[in-house]
Design goal:
This protein has about 220 residues and is of the alpha/beta class. It folds into 2 domains: about 150 residues, SPOUT methyltransferase, trefoil knot domain (Alpha/beta knot, 3-Layer(aba) Sandwich); about 55 residues, Orthogonal Bundle (Trp Operon Repressor, Chain A), CATH 1.10.1270.20. It is about 30% helix and about 20% strand. It contains 7 helices and 9 strands. The strands form 3 sheets. A 5-stranded parallel β-sheet has the order 2-1-6-5-7, with helices on both faces. Helix 4 links the parallel strand 5 and strand 6.
Length: about 220
């Protein structure tokens, strides 16, 4: 999979995508992440990519010309399955969406910034808008990193144990069951005996029950 991320402040993206699982995914050649500086497509020598909003509203708006030029330049090189815009009023990212996107081959993610982007970009260039929650960030870079991480870890071969992703929270609309490790007794705080009983059927039943109970208690909306 290849993900091209368009940003006005690309340095914000290097660290979160250069470590841990995302680093291994790229080293294995399973995921290619390219961060494009939108200012490389600026309309003048001053690096301008934004302008005042028509109508006198406060805040700057990312211009259509540099974004269109950037996207068209990328499209000359390959076909993209989705052109994603990180937006607070987009569809909320969830595990089901991540599963679907992880099966794509090429994605563009446009990071929102300032007051947003010229609406014509959303009308004519964007195929999918994604929000990571009902709050506002200074820019879409952190959202783009979250989306990339969420998708990238699902690519076959990225995780050392591919079955691990099948038991993550939100798969099957359930939160994950509790997990424990050694020692089995720490300061009198004990691990449930069933987990080291060796009885796999009982262990599986315990995990299913715990996942359901936790979801009912903490996120009953997932069960609707």
């Amino acid at each position: 999979m290849r993900i091209d991320i368009i940003s006005v402040v690309p340095d914000l993206l290097h660290s979160p995508l250069s470590h841990s699982i995302m680093k291994r995914a790229q080293e294995k050649g399973l995921l290619e992440v390219n961060i494009i500086n939108l200012r490389d497509y600026a309309i003048n020598n001053h690096g301008q990519v934004d302008d005042y909003a028509f109508g006198g509203e406060a805040g700057m708006v990312l211009m259509i010309e540099p974004i269109d030029n950037c996207i068209q330049d990328l499209k000359k090189q390959r076909h993209y399955d989705e052109v994603i815009y990180t937006s607070p009023d987009g569809q909320t990212l969830n595990q089901g969406m991540a599963n679907q996107l992880s099966m794509k081959e090429n994605l563009i993610i446009l990071c929102g910034h300032y007051k947003g982007v010229d609406e014509r970009i959303r009308e004519h260039l964007i195929t999918k808008e994604i929000s990571i929650g009902d709050y506002v960030l200074s820019g879409g870079e952190l959202a783009a990193a979250v989306i990339t991480d969420c998708i990238g870890r699902l690519i076959p071969g990225v995780l050392n144990d591919e079955s691990s992703a099948l038991f993550d929270s939100f798969q099957d609309n359930l939160l994950s069951h509790p997990v424990y490790t050694r020692p089995a007794d720490y300061n009198g705080w004990k691990v449930p005996e069933v987990l080291y009983s060796g009885h796999q059927a009982n262990i599986k039943k315990w995990k299913e029950d715990q996942a359901l109970q936790r979801t009912q208690s903490r996120r009953p909306d997932l069960l609707k």
